[in-house]
Amino acid sequence: MTENPQTRAAAGCPMEQASETFRPFEHQGMYEFLASVRGDVPIFFAPEIDYWVVTRRADIEKIMPDADRFSAELATQPVFPWPDSVGRYLEGRNFSNEAVQVACDPPRHTRIKKSAAQFLNIRQFMSYEDAIRDLVRGYIERMRGQEEIDLVEALTYELPAQVVFLLLGVTDFDPKKIKAWGDLRLHMIWGDPNEHDLDTAARDLADFWDYTVDLVEARKVSPQDDYPSKLLALRDGDDAVLTENEIKSLIFGLLIAGHETTTNAAGNLLLELLRRPNQWQAIVDDPSRAKNAVEEGLRYVTSVVAWRRQTKEPVTVSGIDLPKGAKVLLSLASANRDPAKFDEPEMFDIRRKNAQEHMAFGRGLHHCAGAPLARLELRIILEELTTAFPEMALVDDQSINFTRTLSFRGPNQILVRPCG
Amino acid sequence: MVQFTFIQPDGTRNTVYATPGMSVMETAQHNGIGGIIAECGGSMACATCHAYFDADTIAKIGASEGNEHEMLDFAATPRSEHSRLSCQVEVSEVLEGAEITIPDSQV
């Protein structure tokens, strides 16, 4: 027998209290909130965003891979629909980005992923290890001799964008420009922007798309050893494999998915380690610990805190009936600290044996294609930073701020003294 | 039903009853066996469901081939001649009594 949510709400039950307390865009206090509700409230409604929030790992593990009953098509749609003026402007600029990976369902997803995975795979990513290490060492050289730095500005903001450029064969573009575009796009889709923000952001979004189109057109004329050239070769003029617009959309997607989440994951991981000098020291003493430290960082402070689905038919989640078309927010942050999976889940421990069983990269057919690349980047960052600056320490009494978005969490600034 | 055993890196043994037609990976997940992560859900994109099958079983089911064989080069714990991606091994009668050892790390 299922429970009626209205009846529960009227009774002033924990589910209703969770609905009233949840602040979907506010990261300060998010983990404390999740810990306080997970035991009694496996699912609750968030009226501010019109989503049902799922808090337990067991439910999220079932829902995320279930493409038969839960659609991923809304995964990259704006949380708050854009005004018509934005749509008209983008149409006038020939902005034709379409859902190709994270936000489409089988069989379309299956067809496109088959091509994308020919390049986005662990074999290909590992071929970039030396190049990534050289990039990290370059940033570290620029940190030397400075008494105090912001690790985000000095390293983690730009580096993942530079790695995306490696994949795209781009050598002549300012990483800060790509980052600015990415920030705007996240704000437009996962934030709560006002109309003025949206008008400004729409222009930049169209510029971002134009850049992508130019890049793909250039590779058609002069193929290189990179992702767009690989996709064009796989297409070989056959729309049944991939259309040109799908290729442009895949590149457009990589230009954001390939760096924003890794920037945030690196910031989250470094902050937690530096807050615990004994765990930083443990990696200094034995760099082979970096690998599991990366996994614990992804578990304890995932950079993707929540991901979206929509019901394709009536379903029941932890006793609550949801109609067809209900919007569902899966709290990966909560799944990663669920005591049903992890002992002492609120403790950050780089020696945790099952840290790798986190859900930071999702689960199932939409599992993050770039996961091995993110892991590689994070491990190299840790290995190189702990080697170069074994005494690195956080600057005291700094406040850590997070951008307001529904799905992404990462510190905007981490002030450190490189030499302690 | 087919009965076989998962062995954790610390030697812990879990014997499960598996349904023919499912994969070994799905069987592990269905039974809450730790260490078979399978982040990609069986699309041969992640190599996080790597497992070592006992010699008799490998002789029956055959060694890895094609994309699976290539992906095993990138498994987090080094492959051996007994390695398979468990998402690519279908449960059938030949797995009766098999011993499937889970590697130290999958990522």
UniProtKB/TrEMBL annotation, chain A:
A Pfam entry, by short name: p450
Coiled-coil portions: none
Domain of life where this protein originates: Bacteria
UniProt keyword Transmembrane helix, yes or no: no
Keywords: Heme, Iron, Metal-binding, Monooxygenase, Oxidoreductase
Manganese among keywords: no
MF terms in GO: heme binding; iron ion binding; monooxygenase activity; oxidoreductase activity, acting on paired donors, with incorporation or reduction of molecular oxygen
CDD domains from the UniProt entry: CYP130-like (cd11078)
InterPro entries, sorted: Cyt_P450, Cyt_P450_B, Cyt_P450_CS, Cyt_P450_sf
SUPFAM superfamilies in alphabetical order: Cytochrome P450
Function noted in UniProt: Cytochromes P450 are a group of heme-thiolate monooxygenases. They oxidize a variety of structurally unrelated compounds, including steroids, fatty acids, and xenobiotics.
Similarity annotation: Belongs to the cytochrome P450 family.
Protein name: Cytochrome P450
Species the sequence originates in: Salinihabitans flavidus
UniProtKB/TrEMBL annotation, chain B:
Keywords (A to Z) from UniProt: 2Fe-2S, Iron, Iron-sulfur, Metal-binding
GO biological process: P450-containing electron transport chain
Essential cofactor(s): [2Fe-2S] cluster
One Pfam family it belongs to: Fer2
Chain ranges of the 2Fe-2S ferredoxin-type domain: 2-106
InterPro entries, per database record: 2Fe-2S_ferredoxin-like_sf (IPR036010), 2Fe-2S_ferredoxin-type (IPR001041), Adrenodoxin-like (IPR001055), Adrenodoxin_Fe-S_BS (IPR018298), Beta-grasp_dom_sf (IPR012675)
GO molecular function per UniProt: 2 iron, 2 sulfur cluster binding; electron transfer activity; metal ion binding
Domain of life: Bacteria
Matches recorded under PANTHER family: FERREDOXIN-2, MITOCHONDRIAL, FERREDOXIN/ADRENODOXIN
Similarity field: Belongs to the adrenodoxin/putidaredoxin family.
Protein name: Ferredoxin, 2Fe-2S
Native organism: Salinihabitans flavidus
